[in-house]
Design brief:
Elements: E1 31-37, H1 39-42, H2 47-56, E2 61-67, H3 73-80, H4 83-88, E3 94-97, H5 105-124, E4 128-132, H6 144-158, E5 161-163, H7 165-175, E6 182-183, E7 186-187, H8 194-205
Parallel strand pairs: 1-2, 1-3, 3-4, 4-5
Antiparallel strand pairs: 6-7
Helix pairs in contact: 3-5, 5-6, 7-8
Length: 213
């Protein structure tokens, strides 16, 4: 059934050739997921983790990505990338929208606006809009609640859902403080971070982090 993405996917991101969309269509079958974002999507190269978790769950996820450095969602939807064409190119199950923390009000407002402008294309492609919650920079490490509020506002604006990766990191740190910490704008992802992805998936699957709540 469409929109029942396997648990393993809900905390993850993909990296593969930033900003590029292959002309050949994705193979049929599996769950088709498009990521739109910036370096927080493509720098931490997680395709191998994603594929491994998919195989573990005996499921298939087929992915594409449009991600460019320092891009906000408004840059994508205004034509700075081929994100809209990418949405139109396939039937998708989910389109995952990611930008930086967006903890400031102006960033939150533009995130909501861009999400609303993307939504007609997402619905036309048969997909569900999904917000990827990131994390604050190291100099604003206490701003996780503001980051979540921004993510939630964008999800609520279109009846979408949230992939609460930032909150999963907080939960993981309470259990294991030795996990990699936020380092400036980026995040190091060691092998142990699979636990963080799994936690985000479980939280979302239980319906605790849905944007409509």
């Amino acid at each position: 059934m469409r929109h029942q993405l396997p648990l393993l996917m809900l905390g993850g991101a993909l990296s593969c050739g930033a900003g590029s969309i292959a002309s050949a269509p994705l193979p049929s079958g599996g769950h088709h997921v498009l990521f739109i974002g910036n370096s927080l999507t493509y720098v931490n190269d997680l395709p191998a983790t994603l594929e491994q978790l998919a195989r573990t769950a005996h499921d298939t996820i087929r992915v594409r990505m449009v991600a460019l450095p320092n891009f906000a969602l408004i840059d994508h939807v205004n034509g700075g990338s081929n994100a809209v064409d990418a949405i139109r190119s396939e039937r998708w199950d989910y389109v995952v929208l990611q930008q930086g923390p967006s903890a400031q009000q102006v960033s939150r407002d533009t995130r909501v606006l861009a999400t609303q402008r993307f939504d007609p294309y997402i619905h036309a492609a048969g997909a569900k809009s999904a917000q990827f919650m990131t994390w604050p920079a190291s100099d604003r490490i206490t701003a996780f609640d503001s980051v979540y509020a921004s993510t939630q506002a964008a999800a609520r604006a279109v009846g979408g859902i949230i992939f609460p990766v930032g909150r999963a990191w907080v939960a993981a740190w309470t259990v294991d403080p030795t996990l990699a910490a936020v380092n400036g704008h980026e995040l190091a992802v060691p092998a142990t971070s699979v636990r963080v992805l799994q936690q985000a998936a479980q939280d979302t699957a239980r319906g605790e982090q849905r944007g409509e709540q």
